[in-house]
Write a structure and sequence with these properties.
heterodimer; A: alpha+beta; five-stranded antiparallel beta sheet; B: Immunoglobulin-like; Ig_TPPC8_C (chain B); Ig_TPPC8_1st (chain B); TRAPP_III_complex_Trs85 (chain B); Trafficking protein particle complex subunit 8 (chain B)
């Protein structure tokens, strides 16, 4: 059961282009910056790790107390980062793969400027639906 | 239990001595010996101590890194396991461990060790340890700056918790180097806010405010966070006790791309909304109105008009004493409403007219702005040269408002708009300068000059100016609505203006009235009893209406300080939204820099559909020169009902009357919402001299439909209705492309007012170019006895009847009458009538061999029907007759029918064929040069006589 899950897409210029709190725990305002700090710091680790492997899914790269950062790096060096406290690696991997497909669709949009913020509400709802599907342990939904 | 004198303790002392004497090998072997013993005895504290020492020995021997780390790890976890008594030892062990890793250059691992120790320590200790961890990240290669920043923030937090604010600020400030210009908004806000807040607590307000300024315009934060930021900010600002000047304050956000300077040179506007109308619309409208600049040119080489010295200058012109307006959009990014007061322009007015010198002056000022941000107070105290408006507004959460700022120059010179200043919540003064880059663009190309912002304005001497508005122009009206409006013009200056002209974009909707119309009471003035010879007047205005340019009478001058009114007639012609543009041109009495000015007015009117009127006209088959008119009226409004008042034919040529059978039924027609009504009328052509029936008094061009009687009749030949009708006729003729309309109708109706307080609303619907369904140049009519009594035992009956033929066309016409004896039942119905005339093919056949053609076509025609019956009567006088008819004349052709048996007969088995001889050869008449028609049914009863 992922009570905390913060999903961020970071462009290759280290700018967050999409942010979503997808955890089932009620959103707390003061935690938002907390999550950003952890994810931002994890970028350092990703930077090292990304060039050591062929796999796009880097598994959990960093942890802070009981929060784990899992990262998926696309070919264009856009990073999908998920801050979570659950351990279902398979679910996270499928989540990242499906989000990657969605992201490619966004990229195909000729009006989307690569590296700019993803403001599509369609994308947002899809990502949230995927998070419900893969990140929550069965029985909750 | 191990006492000091136990063997294990002795060995421990021995190995410690060995360690001190740098015999690490001996020390290590003894420590290992001890560790197994302690482990077996589960003396964890001693075990951990031995492990720690063996770890150090491994490190000093520098043999096996793995072993050293393993030992330290073991010691550390064991210390932690034994609870609070091992806490300090764990920390010491961790410090050794971290130092070990640092010495070997494993900074990353060292920092994780520091981080692990920090979790177990009180806040001040953990702060120091976290700072160490951060330093390790900085030293590691590659450098991990983000981790460094993160751990510094954690350290700062711990410092703050342990009441070490200065250290906290130091840690955060170091972290700021990492997070400077960071797009991660929450991080940015957190760091700036905390640094600002702690500085504020420390009493260093200016730095605190500087940091807090970074976060007060955060739109992504929640309401509580935003109000927290803002409260802290204002708290610190107030504690400083003075007003702060902030360059480029982010609250509220001024949208500089929406900036627009409105200066009135020769173009003046009635209201602020009119400014937004595209300039090209006005220019098109004013094309005939304003004197063209080509007049000034002496020859074709002289392309630059020399009329105004300001024309060549790219700067705009404004008039002293008149406000220059500046529109700008401002947005509140927060969810909290903010109070913005004293929004005003920062301006410079140099009274030196020498353009080059001023240019130098202004450029100097620009550089000044760019480099040092001069204090605003120097511009503020310029009250004797110009005045600026101050505006106070409250912006709600997330609200965007468009504001208008004004500056009124008082003296001649060059006015430069520098920027905007405002006060936020009575405590912070924000100011912003206009971008200078747009001016450079101005200099480059003429094209861009109009669109881009021009902040330099030449102030010229005061001019008279008219302001105007149309009184009670409806924003919503029903189609056909007719109203009398008043145009009010006011001259606010001392000087008079003359030579006033006006142009209206939609003469179909609004036409200027006559000066006498002003005091008339509408709609009573339109009633018929007010007889006047206004026809001549309307002729005159018709010419004006054509060009939609209206010149006020020459004598009219508007003196300074007076108000001038002029009537306007409004008629909502077609449903839909339309924009009405009015442009008034006037000249100055005295010679000034600008010889003329224009006043531009713009109104939007929504016209709702009301009554939909259509007419169907068919020829009357029983009388000549008469038509039956069906009027269909549909009320298309959802809730309003209308009372029909009168129907009028335009012109004196036509007379309208009710059908004879309907005389007794009163025509009270109120059409409720969404209902339709059909009425039938008879119209008669009065102009032809050969009209068979003399026009009796009851026939007029108007017919009253309301119960009010003839007093309620409106005169359609008077000014507004005829003028509007002329427009409608012109417009509908253009749309329909009908070459020649037969007649025009005007239906006047009244809105049935729900509440009686509303004044009477009059609607006029104009339907033009109505024509009969079939339009023949020849009319014919059978005349004769309807009942014949005859004794068939003696002989067959001969009935004398005559055919009256009338030529209504403008040319000589030859008409042939052909009778045939076969019975054509189908000929009585309209479609076969048309097909028969089509079969006749008379358009192509010449007059000489027409008999053959008729015979051949009739042959086929009769073959079809030969099986039907044999005709019971025979035309006996002639089979065909030919008459020539002059224009507007009638002829009678006597016919004779032989009847063999009593019964009822229909003498319609004849055909007419005509050919119109155009007077000019080669000129083809509009539609019909030749044609034909079947006979109308004419029933005769033949009875058996005694």
């Amino acid at each position: 059961m992922a009570s905390t899950a913060c999903f961020v897409i970071v462009s290759k210029n280290d700018i967050p282009i999409y942010e979503a709190e997808v955890g089932s725990a009620p959103k707390k305002e003061d935690l938002a910056y907390h999550h950003q700090f952890i994810l931002h710091a994890a970028l350092d680790v990703v930077q090292d790790l990304a060039w050591t492997t062929n796999a796009m899914f880097l598994r959990s790269v960093d942890r802070f107390n009981d929060l784990v950062v899992s990262v998926y790096v696309t070919a264009g060096h856009t990073r999908f980062m998920l801050l979570h406290d659950s351990r279902s690696e398979d679910g996270i991997k499928s989540f990242f793969q499906e989000v990657h497909e969605l992201y490619i669709k966004i990229f195909l949009n000729p009006l989307y400027l690569p590296g700019s913020r993803i403001a599509s509400s369609h994308f947002d709802t899809k990502v949230r639906a995927l998070a419900r599907k893969y990140l929550y342990i069965r029985g909750i939904y | 239990m191990y006492t000091f004198t136990s063997i294990e303790s002795q060995i421990r002392v021995l190995s410690d001595y060995a360690f001190m004497l740098r015999d690490y090998e001996l020390a290590l072997s003894n420590y290992r010996l001890l560790s197994t013993d302690y482990k077996l005895d589960k003396a964890w504290k001693r075990f951990a101590g031995v492990q720690e020492m063996s770890g150090l020995c491994y490190f000093m021997l520098d043999q096996s890194r793995k072993d050293a780390e393993y030992c330290m790890e073991n010691a550390f976890t064991t210390y932690l396991r034994i609870g609070s008594s091992g806490q300090r030892n764990a920390t010491r062990c961790g410090l050794w461990w971290a130092e070990m890793l640092k010495t070997r250059g494993q900074h990353r691992e060292a920092s994780t060790v520091y981080f692990r120790i920090s979790n177990e320590e009180p806040s001040l200790h953990s702060a120091v340890l976290l700072e160490q961890a951060a330093c390790c990240y900085l030293l590691s290669s590659p450098r991990m700056l983000r981790k460094y920043g993160f751990h510094l923030i954690l350290a700062g937090n711990s410092y703050y918790l342990s009441d070490q604010k200065q250290h906290a600020v130091r840690a955060y400030r170091n972290a700021l180097f990492v997070y400077k210009q960071n797009p991660w908004s929450y991080i940015n806000n957190h760091v700036h806010f905390n640094v600002g807040r702690w500085y504020g607590v420390l009493g260093i307000f200016d730095v605190a405010i500087k940091h807090l300024l970074e976060v007060i315009a955060c739109s992504h934060q929640s309401l509580t966070t935003q109000s927290m930021f803002l409260n802290d900010f204002f708290h610190f600002v107030q504690s400083t006790g003075e007003k702060f000047d902030v360059y480029k304050l982010q609250l509220p956000v001024f949208n500089m791309s929406s900036l627009r300077v409105v200066n009135e040179d020769h173009r003046t506007y009635a209201s602020n909304a009119d400014v937004d109308v595209n300039e090209s619309i006005w220019q098109e409208l004013e094309e005939e109105l304003i004197p063209s600049s080509s007049v000034v040119r002496t020859n074709w080489l002289d392309t630059q008009p020399k009329s105004s010295p300001f024309r060549n200058n790219k700067a705009c012109v404004c008039v002293a004493g008149e406000a220059v307006k500046l529109n700008v959009e401002l947005k509140n990014p927060l969810q909290i409403s903010v109070n913005v007061s004293g929004i005003s322009l920062i301006c410079q007015l140099s009274t030196n007219l020498n353009a080059s010198e001023t240019g130098a002056l202004t450029t100097a000022a620009e550089e000044d702005i760019a480099s040092t941000k001069p204090s605003i107070s120097t511009f503020e105290s310029d009250g004797n040269n110009f005045t600026v408006s101050k505006l106070d507004i409250v912006l709600g959460g997330g609200e965007t408002k468009r504001i208008q700022l004004e500056v009124t120059p008082k003296v001649i010179g060059i006015l430069k708009l520098v920027g905007i200043r405002w006060t936020l919540s009575d405590s912070v003064v924000g100011y912003q300068y206009f971008e200078v880059a747009t001016q450079k663009k101005n200099k480059k190309g003429k094209r861009g000059a109009r669109r881009s912002l021009n902040t330099n304005l030449i102030v010229i001497k005061g001019l008279p100016k008219l302001t105007g508005y149309i009184e009670c122009l409806p924003t919503k009206a029903f189609t056909g609505d007719l109203q009398l409006l008043t145009l009010n013009l006011r001259n606010q200056s001392e000087h008079a203006v003359k030579n006033i002209k006006m142009k209206i974009s939609h003469p179909r909707f609004v036409i200027p009235g006559d000066s006498s119309d002003l005091d008339l009471e509408f709609p009573q003035c339109l009633r018929k009893h007010v007889q006047s010879d206004s026809n001549t007047v309307s002729e005159g205005t018709k010419e004006n209406v054509k060009g939609s340019l209206f010149a006020f009478p020459q004598g009219i001058k508007i003196q300074g300080g007076t108000t001038f009114s002029w009537p306007l007639w409004f008629h909502a012609a077609t449903p839909g939204n339309f924009s009405l543009y009015l442009s008034l041109y006037y000249e100055m009495e005295s010679t000034t820099d600008i010889p003329y000015r224009t006043l531009r007015m713009h109104y939007n009117v929504e016209v709702l559909p009301s009554l939909d009127v259509s007419f169907a006209i068919s020829m009357c088959s029983s009388r000549l020169q008469e038509y039956i008119v069906r009027m269909d009226v549909i009320n298309k409004t959802p809730s309003d009902s209308f009372a029909l008042n009168q129907l009028s034919c335009v012109g004196t040529k036509w007379a309208v009357s009710t059908l004879p059978s309907r005389d007794s039924i009163s025509f009270v027609e109120t059409i409720p919402a969404n209902q339709a009504v059909s009425c039938f009328f008879k119209i008669k052509d009065l102009s032809t001299s050969s009209c068979i029936e003399a026009a009796d008094g009851s026939c007029g061009s108007d017919i009253v439909l309301s119960p009010g009687g003839s007093t309620d009749v409106f005169d359609v030949s008077r000014t507004p209705i005829t003028d509007f009708h002329y427009q409608e006729r012109h417009q509908q003729g253009k749309l329909a492309k009908v070459p020649r309309g037969l007649l025009d109708f005007i239906l006047i109706s009244k809105a049935v007012a729900v509440n009686s307080s509303k004044s009477e609303q009059l609607l006029s619907h104009h339907t033009c170019h109505c024509s009969a369904l079939s339009q023949n140049p020849v009319w014919w009519l059978m005349e004769g006895p309807r009942t014949i009594t005859h004794d068939f035992s003696k002989s067959c009956c001969e009935a004398n009847i005559q055919l009256v033929i009338h030529n209504s066309s403008e040319h000589n016409t030859t008409v042939r009458v052909v009778t045939s004896d076969c019975m054509a039942e189908k000929s009585q119905t309209a479609p076969s009538h048309e097909s028969a005339s089509g079969q006749g093919g008379w358009h192509d056949v010449s007059l000489e061999n027409d008999i053959k053609a008729i015979a051949s076509t009739k042959g086929t025609h009769s073959q079809k029907q030969s099986s039907e019956s044999i005709s019971p009567f025979v035309w006996c006088s002639l089979s065909s007759a030919q008459v020539d008819l002059k224009p507007d004349s009638s002829a009678k052709i006597p016919l004779k029918v032989c009847i063999f048996a009593p019964g009822t007969y229909n003498f319609s088995t004849y055909e007419l064929h005509w050919k119109v001889h155009s007077s000019e050869s080669g000129h083809v008449d509009e539609n019909v040069t030749s044609g034909g028609g079947q006979g109308y049914p004419f029933y005769v009863n033949v009875l058996q006589g005694a």
